[in-house]
Amino acid sequence: MNALTAEQLRALYLEFFAARGHRVISGSSLIPQNDPTVLFTTAGMHPLVPYILGESHPAGRRLCNCQKCIRTGDIDSVGDAGHLTFFEMLGNWSLGDYFKEEAIAWSFEFLTGPAGLGFSAEQLFVTVFQGDDLVPPDEESARLWKKLGIPEQRIFFLPKADNWWGPAGQTGPCGPDTEMFIDIGKPACGSACRPGCGCGKYFEIWNDVFMQYEKTADGRYAPLKQNNVDTGMGVERTIAMLQGKMSVYETELFAPVLEALSAGSGKRMGESETVTRAFRVIADHLRSSVFILGDEQGVAPGNLGQGYVLRRLIRRSVRHAKKLGLAVGFSRPIAESIIGQYSRVYPELEKHRERILGELVGEEEKFEKTLAQGLQELGKVLAQMKAHAQTVVSGRMAFRLYDTYGFPVEFTREICLEEGLTVDQAGFDQAFAKHQELSRAGAEKAFKGGLADHSDATTRLHTATHLLHRSLQHVLGGHVQQKGSNITAERLRFDFSHTAKVTPDELQRVEAMVNQAIRDDLPVTLELMTLDEARASGATALFTAKYGEQLKVYSIGDFSKEACGGPHVARTSELGKFRIVKEEASSAGVRRIRAVLE
Question: What is the pTM of this model?
Fold first, then answer.
C-alpha cells in the first residue's frame, strides 16, 4: 500500500488514466448551471450528464478529472470521523466507448498494481447488483471480478439500495454499479457482516457505475442508446486509508486548519469529544464556505437556495467556535490557511481572496448578535420545558425563534438533541409555510444533472438565455455577467451581476432586443475551440478550462457567442415570443430575471 498525499493521489490517478487514452479535463463550477434539481455539483459526473445522454463531448469519449463537490444531505452528521460537506472526487468516464470489462480491469489494476495504490488483492472485496423483477442481476461484473482473481466468497450481490445508480426523478439514465471495499482488519460485527454493512470493517474506496438503462415514464428500464461508465473515488477518504488514519481529519488536508483552531482556542484535537466535534465541524464547514465563495460562480450568504446553505455552514461554524471560546474574527486566519493550501490546485481561491474573507467575516459578525439573542431565548424555553417535564419544542415556538430572532431551526433542533429533547418539525414547517415559501436549503434532491430535461421546450429556453445575456450586456453595460441560471420546460431564471434594480424601460429594451433576434431567424452554430481560441474570438464564458482543452462555443448569428455545453435550437425563429415575467434582487450585487417563451 502506497501512503500518498492528496497531491500525489490526484497526479497518480490522472496520469494512470491519461496513459490509457483518457483526456484530462477541467473540473466544473460548484454551482450547477441550468439545473433546478440540485443546489450544488454533488458528484464528478454531474456536469457530464448531457454527454451520457449522447451529446458529443469536445474532448472525446474517454475522460478523467478531479471535481470539487458539495453535499449537504448529511450536514448534521459532520463532526464524526468521515462525513464532509465539501470533497474532491476523482473520476474516469467512458461515453459510449469501453464498458464493464475495461473499467473493472483498470479499477483492479489501479487498486492493486505497482503503478497504482498497491493494495493487496487479498484485501479487496466487491459488491454487484443482485437484480430485481425489472432488471437482471449483474452477472457480467461478477464474472469479470472472478476472472481477475477475486474469489466468489469476496463478491457480494446486493439490492438496488446498495448497488444501483438511479435518476432523481421518474425518468432518466441509470444502471447497476460495482463497489470496491478494502478489509481494514477489524473484527466482523456478526455473521451477517459484509461490505457496506456500516460497522467499519470494510472501507468503500471506489465505485464504478454502468449507465446502461434509461428509466421510462411507464416504469420500464430500456437500454440506453450508448453504454457509459462513470466512476468515483473520493480524495479525502482514500488518502486517509492509504496513510493509515482513522479519520479524514487526521490527514494533511486539515492540518493547517486544526493548527489555527488550536492556536486560537488553546485547545487540542482529541482532548474531549466536544472539542473534537467542534474542530471537525469548523474545519469542514469553513473549507466548504471558502470553496463556495471562491467559486467562479460564487454566491453570497442569503436566505434561499445556495445562499442559505452557505449561511447555514458559516453560522454552524460560529456556534461551535463559541464552544471553543474563539474570538470574533476567527474565520479569517482559518480561511487564509485554506486558500494558501489549495490555491495552487484551485487558483480561483486566490483570485477571489478578498470576496471570501469579506463575506466570511461579515457573516460571522452579523450572526454574533443573532446567536446571543437566540441562545438566551431558547435557554428560557428549555428551562420552562424541563420544569414541566416536557420533551417536545412546539413548531410554533421554533418558528418564533426563527422569525423573531433569526435563530435557524437547525440550531434549535441540534441544541434540543444535545439536551435529550425534540422539535415538532412538522409544526415548524406549517408555520413557516404561512409566512413564506419553504426554503430549499438543506433538502437537496438527489441529483439528476444537466438540464431538468432535454425536451424541445427546455432546449428553446436554454437558447433564449444566450439572447437574454447578450441583450442585458447591450442595455446595461459590459459588466453584466451570468451568475447562475435555472431552466425548466416552463420558464427560465437568469441571475446576473448588476448592482441597481433594472428599470421598466431597460427591461422593455432587453425584451425587445431578444424578440428582434428571434424574428431575425439567426442561425445557431457550433465550433470547437481551445481556451485561448475561445478567449481570442470574444466568446463569453467562465473560462475554467485547462490550457489546450477544447470547448464548445455556440454562435447565434453575429449577436451572441458563448462557451456552453448545449443543447440549442438550430435557428432563433424556433423560439417563439420572449416575455420577461419578473425582475428582482437575488443576492448582493446580483439581479434575477424570470422569463417565458410564448
Answer: 0.75
